[in-house]
Amino acid sequence: MGAAAPGSLPSPELLEEFSKFFRLLSEPARLQLLCHLRQAPTDVASLIEATGFSQSHISRQLSQLQRAGLVSCEREGVRLIYRANAELVEELCDLVQKRMKQRLQQQLDQLQAA
Q1: Is the pTM of this model over 0.90?
Q2: In the chain, what are the domains?
Q3: Cα dihedral sign for 50, 52, 55, 57?
Q4: How far is CA 52 from the centre of its chain?
Q5: Helix-helix angle 28-39:55-67, to 10 degrees
Q6: CA separation for the pair 102, 108 (Å, rounded)
Q7: With b meaning 16 or more CB within 10 Å and e meaning fewer, what string describes 40-53?
Q8: Contact (CB, 8 A) for 49 and 29
Q9: Residue 90 φ then ψ, to 5°
């Protein structure tokens, strides 16, 4: 399942993978966890305190993020420390934030022009 050549359409299999990835990112709880992990690597107990989510909910979300390669985990003593895949998460967040700011500015400009 390689990348599509420039100017060609992605295969149905690749589009299915895209769809799965974007569905993963469509869950606000997972986005909130990624935002916390962007700030600093941490354990589940700290994420519970920061978000108010249950341990099972956080663990389930982290597991899905881990399978997608957005989060990694390593053991430090008895604790599991989760880290955002910094490069990928930063690129995604920066791109989305930039586009959202542009869109909001366009909407503001349209309102002011009306």
Answers
A1: no
A2: 14-85 (1.10.10.10)
A3: negative
A4: 19
A5: 80
A6: 10
A7: ebbebeebeeebeb
A8: no
A9: -60, -45
98 is written with which tokens? 């930039």
In contact, 4 and 10? CB cutoff 8 Å: yes
Please, are residues 74 and 81 in contact by the beta-carbon 8 Å criterion?
yes
| Spatial separation of the C-alpha atoms in residues 73 and 71, rounded to whole Å | 7
**Are the beta carbons of 89 and 38 closer than 8 angstroms?**
yes
Percentages helix, strand, coil for the chain, rounded to the nearest 5?
65, 10, 25
Q: CA angle 21-90-2, nearest 5°?
A: 45
pLDDT digits (tens, 9 = 90+) for 49-76: 999 999 999 999 999 999 988 999 999 9
